[in-house]
Amino acid sequence: MNRLDGKVAIVTGAGRGIGRAIAEAFAREGATVIATSQSDHADFSGNIEFHKQDVAEEAGWKDLVSAVLERHGRIDVLVNNAGIIAYDPLHELSVADWDRVVAVNQTGVWLGMREVLPGMLAAGVGSIINVSSIWGNAAVSGAHAYHATKGAVRNMSKNAAITYATTGVRVNSLHPGFIETPLTDAQAPEVNDYVVSMTPMGRAGRPEEIAWGAVFLASDESSFMTGAELVIDGGYLAQ
């Protein structure tokens, strides 16, 4: 069943983890996928095209969207997935590190939406999926810049959803819980163990479990959803 047959989708932060799982799931469901990453991960096959991109750069977004429209004539889906984290306590984080987290996690999402919206509005259809986090809804000690930006993504998505609600363009946020990815593998084991222990299902999620949620939001199956938060977290936020 090709749930995304004929759709053209951009997925950022697709070199690994959740982003890669989303790109591969979209491709399996029939979409033409433009997968972007700041690193050199060009080992995609089939109907996945790779573009190197720093989502915090305005010029890069303009070049990417222009190239996709020239090659494919449309952009049906945007998944703003790229994100980074800083662990320094609030009183120790440098301005440079704060600015970089905001640039990637928040400004990058804004730039992506800004660049794809004109084409989507002209076509009268589109699905934008902004990957937030359970940490966009609730807080734990540390990683305050990540919390701030993921909360911003959550509310920015709602604003865009309401602003464009009558145009055929839908905007939703996706909120993963603790997922086994290279990003979480790089965290201190005690941090990971704590979050898993606080997850009612008692385990970490898998990237593909987030990817199927993204497929739903990208597909016409979710045609009456906008401004929603799709939480996939093993029950964490239900507590």
Order of helices and strands: EHEEHEHEHEHHHE
Tell me the number of strands: 7
Which percent band covers the strand fraction? Answer: 15-25%
Q: What overall form do the CA principal axes indicate?
A: globular
How many discrete structural domains? 1
Q: How many helix segments? A: 7
- With strands numbered from the N-terminus, the spatial order across the biggest sheet is 3-2-1-4-5-6-7
Poorly predicted residue ranges: none
Question: What is the third-level CATH name, the topology?
Answer: Rossmann fold
Spatial extent as radius of gyration: 17 Å
The CATH class label is: Alpha Beta
Helix content: 40-55%
CATH architecture: 3-Layer(aba) Sandwich
Find the structural class using helix and strand composition.
Answer: alpha/beta
Structural commentary:
With 239 residues, the chain is of the alpha/beta class. The chain has one domain (8-232): Rossmann fold (3-Layer(aba) Sandwich). It is built from 7 helices and 7 strands. It has a 7-stranded parallel beta sheet with strand order 3-2-1-4-5-6-7, with helices on both faces. α1 (17-28) links the parallel β1 (8-11) and β2 (32-37). The mean pLDDT is 95.
List keywords for this structure.
7 strands, Rossmann fold, seven-stranded parallel β-sheet, single chain
